[in-house]
Specification:
Elements lengths: L14 H44 L4 H14 L7 H4 E5 L6 E13 L2 E11 L1 H4 L1
Antiparallel strand pairs: 1-2, 2-3
Length: 130
């Protein structure tokens, strides 16, 4: 007669493995909740900056007029925390040929005193705005 050990007869997942899977899924969900909104906000900001840059260059506006235009659009979009001066710098200030370098960071709390820092950087010029 063959002797069967307890491990050989076990079927399915143990309580420990189920708890570990739940913990991993919880941490993954928390990461997604902390990271995804920042990337969606960056996508929307890129669209706003590009559209306003295209319009400003088409109307031969100055750099100052572009900053005012972007701040006005951010206010319309209810993005009251973002100021144009804090998000980008000009790489070309020639009227009708404006180009910017966008660089900023978004910090979100992960848990306790652990933060997730998302850094965003991009160059937007006449060609990429179109």
């Amino acid at each position: 007669m063959q002797q069967i050990s307890g491990l050989a007869t076990q079927r399915g997942a143990s309580v420990t493995s189920i708890v570990l899977v739940i913990m991993v899924l919880g941490v993954a969900a928390k990461l997604i909740v902390a990271i995804v909104p920042a990337h969606i906000g960056d996508y929307q900001l890129n669209k706003t900056l590009s559209a306003q840059l295209k319009e400003s260059n088409k109307n031969n506006e100055t750099a100052r007029q572009y900053v005012e235009r972007v701040n006005r659009q951010l206010s319309i979009n209810a993005d009251y925390d973002t100021k144009a001066e804090d998000v980008f710098t000009f790489t070309n200030k020639k009227t009708g040929q404006l180009a910017i370098h966008k660089q900023y960071a978004v910090t979100n709390n992960f848990f306790g005193n652990v933060d997730i820092v998302n850094r965003f950087e991009a160059d937007i010029d006449m060609n990429s705005a179109e």
